[in-house]
Structures are given as C-alpha cells and as structure tokens.
Amino acid sequence: MQFNHFDIDVFLRDFWQKKPLLIRNPWKSWHNPLDPDELAGLACESEVESRLVTQVRETWQLEHGPFAEARFGQLGNKAWTLLVQAVDHHVPDVAALIEPFRFVPNWRIDDVMVSYATDQGGVGPHFDQYDVFLVQGLGQRRWQVGAHCDQATVLLPNEDLRLLAKFEATDEWVLDPGDILYVPPGVAHNGVAVGDNCMTYSIGFRAPSRGELIADWCDDLVADMQDDDRYTDPDLRMQDNPGEISATAITQLHAMITKKMLDRDAFARWFGQYNSTPKYPDADWRPEEPIQIEAVCEFIAGNLPLCRNPASRFSFIRQHANAVLLFVDGQCFECRGETIAFAEQLCSRDRIEIGLKLGKSDFAVALIATLFNQGSVAFVSED
C-alpha cells in the first residue's frame, strides 16, 4: 500500500511530535487487509498477545488472551473491543501497512496493533508515551483528542488500562475506512466505535525512556567488568580531616564511571543489539532444518529473492566508509566491502534480489545462512 497524496516534509515540520493531525484517506487504493474473523482467530492463539476490553456505562474491564473461541459469543449486547498486538508479525498484508510510514526510521517502528469493536466499544480516554498513526480499516470510529498529559496526570484506579480520571475533548472527528489520525506522545485521546464491525490499525513507534537506556546500558557494562577493576590512590596525601571525601577522590571515582559510560562506539554497538532485539524474543522462527551453504548458493544462482521475517528487526550503524555494523534480532555482524551495500538494502527493503556477484562472497553467503537459520530471512519462490 502507498499514499497517493501526503506531504511528508510538511507533516514532519508542523505535526510530528507537536500536534494531532487528521489525514483523510491518502491511499492510492484503500482496502481492509484483515477480516474480523481472522483477527479473532489470532486472539485464540497462545503465542499472540491479545486483550479484551468490555464496557458497562463508564466502567471498563480487561481480560488477557488467549481466548476460547466461544468467548466472543458470550459477550451479548455489551460494548467490547478486542485488541491484538503485533499482527504484522503474522499477516503480510498488515505488515505492508508500515511501508508508507518509513519516513520515520525503522528502528523507531514498534508494531501494528489491530482492534475490533462493537457499537460504542472503546478502551476509554487515555494517553500513550509514543507516536501512533490510527488507520481506520473497517466501519467508523469517533476520535476525540484533548490536552497534553504527563506523569502528574490523574488516572482512574485501574492499573491495567491507565484511563484518565478527567478528559475534555478539544477536537473530534469521525473516521471512515482509509482515514488516519496521527496522535503525538502524551496527547489524550478517546476512540469510540460508531456502529458494529469497527476495525482500527494502530501503527506505534518505540520511544525508549532515559531510565530504560541507562539501566540496560549499565547492566551490559557491568556484565563485562572485572572484579579487580577497583579504585586506587597511589598518590594519597594526608588530609586535615579524615572524615572528608575529597574533591580529588570524587573526581577519580566519577571518572571510573564516566570513562566506561562515555565510550560512544561501545554504546552504539550495544544500542544496535538492544534495539534490534525482537518484540517477542521467546518466539521461535527458526526453520525446521538448518540451511547449508550449498543450498544458499543454489538459491542465489536461481535468482530467488530474499525476504525478511516481518517479526524480525533490522538496522545498521555506519562505522566509516568501509564498514557498517548490521544488527538483526539482537545479533551484530560487521560488514565490509561488497557486503556493505547488501546490509544497507537488507535494512531498507522487505524483499531484495541478490546478485550473482554477491553470491561469490564467502562472507555474504555465510551471513545469509546465519540469518536464515535464526529465522530472520527466507528465500521465497515466485510460485
């Protein structure tokens, strides 16, 4: 799917992380990529994260999946919403929804959550800590947006749903199929289905907090530190007051910490691996039988395209003109020479053609075999 009319430069300049924007059907040709029954089927699978929100007047209740198929028939006339996370990992047509939004770097993209709601169904007024594009897929939904929220905003006593105790709408729109509402981080919003068969695709973006980055970066550093790497003071001088922690000692102690934490190259390598770790790292996408080098060469010779697993994460960091670090599903691969262009293409496209020249590179072939065997890529026949 592609946009027919949408000014990316204007959007990034005037709206991205600044204010909400209603985008009336910008698609070349919109069609709903997923049937409601298929969504319900995914919610019944144990490896798929799903939630069910039911509403009676101003009270919302949350259930976590997987759900028995009979559960949906037991809901009666209640207003309810089914939410299924990371549907793009399982449905290629849903994964294709991400493509037009790649003006935001891939490392910031999280997943596509899909919701289905009956008439008046919703999850209540709330705010998110990340950017989101809300694409109306089927039916209609009334969206309201309100004020900017933060950690001090008062919430209702429901930790699972984190609903706002007070919500006042500043704008309101009814979205039809193909319409998109962009909501920046922290902006209060509330969506309510208008009629049955309401489906919305939420394309969310990752926004690591400062606390998360510091905690995980420090955990990685500490794991490699030696116990005998300790404070020393061979030039110690007698102090007037032995109870004082001197400025010299504080400077040296502080340097012990910052010297490690300010290593930019080490941080870049760590972040590439941290950020490319799959959303669901316990999911096993490996093939039943590992591929051998000879088979990789045969596929390349046969001009079979290489396709990325929609559940995998790819990114790269340029070290210098002659080397890039390729990160795939938490693993780091140093690429040089002819494999640099391959690594860059692999991070920018879901499907690439591998030239015969690259197929003669032992490193490139070995890299493809490794990525295939960890379930990150696959050769796909045109048939």
Automatic annotation (TrEMBL):
Ranges for domain JmjC: 93-222
SUPFAM superfamilies assigned to the protein according to its UniProt record, in alphabetical order: Clavaminate synthase-like
A single MF term (Gene Ontology): 2-oxoglutarate-dependent dioxygenase activity
Entry keywords, A to Z: Dioxygenase, Iron, Metal-binding, Oxidoreductase
Swiss-Prot/TrEMBL cofactor(s): Fe(2+)
Keyword Ubl conjugation: no
Stored InterPro entries: JmjC_dom (IPR003347), NO66-like (IPR039994), ROXA-like_wH (IPR046799)
PANTHER family for this protein: MINA53 MYC INDUCED NUCLEAR ANTIGEN (PTHR13096), RIBOSOMAL OXYGENASE 1 (PTHR13096:SF8)
Protein name: Cupin domain-containing protein
